[in-house]
Amino acid sequence: MTNYYQILGILPDAHQYEVRQAFREKAKCLHPDVNSDGKAHEDFKKINEAYQVLCNQEKRKIYDLRLRNGVLSQKVYYRPGKVKYRAKGDKYAYYDTKTDANPGFEKIEKYFDLTLFLTLVFAGCFALIYGLYRLWYEPVEEINPYPGILMGLIFTVLMIFLWKNRKKLSEDN
Cα separation of 135 and 165, whole Å? Predict the structure, then answer.
């Protein structure tokens, strides 16, 4: 992994002002308009890349973590507290997946799914019961209750079937 601090010739604890000053000094010498050497163009690209990373606070924190811990290509997710791996003093940590970084979201998602399922089953059962009530106790001549009963029955059975087979259906996707 390339060390951007060495490319710019600064210390890892350098402030933004020092990063900017080091970049400007190197850019004056290596800019393609000033220096016609072919290698100068490549060096200018390197110092520009180093400056783009080190001048942005978020990019710099992630770069520092990767530089210290050797995490080259994985994404870094932030979550304070207990983590899989964290260097001493770091608030950024390495996780395998985004779900590992945000385990609370999975609980919220499960409760939301359960609430939505129970609401829809209640709606289906209510339609079924209301249709049967209209059929036996208060029939109205202009309204046919059979489609409501059929829809309530199909909707309720379909929701229960989908809920029971949700794991199998999610594995297929």
Answer: 33
Q: Could you list the residue range(s) of the whole structural domain that residue 47 is in?
A: 4-101
DSSP for residue 85: B
pTM: 0.43
3-state SS assignment for residue 142: coil
Same domain, residue pair 45 and 77: yes
Tell me the β-bridge partners of 85.
Answer: 94
Q: Residues 6 or more apart from 63 whose CB is under 8 A from it?
A: 4, 53, 54
Q: Give the separation between CA 82 and CA 95, rounded to whole angstroms.
A: 11
**How many other CB atoms are found less than 10 A from the CB of residue 145?**
17
pLDDT by residue (tens digit) across 94-147? 555 665 656 666 677 778 888 888 888 888 888 888 888 888 877 777 777 788
Q: In total, how many domains does the chain have?
A: 2
With contact defined as beta carbons under 8 Å apart, do 31 and 48 qualify?
Answer: no
What separation in angstroms does the CA of 131 have from each of 22, 126, 173? Answer: 78, 8, 36
Same domain for 117 and 33: no
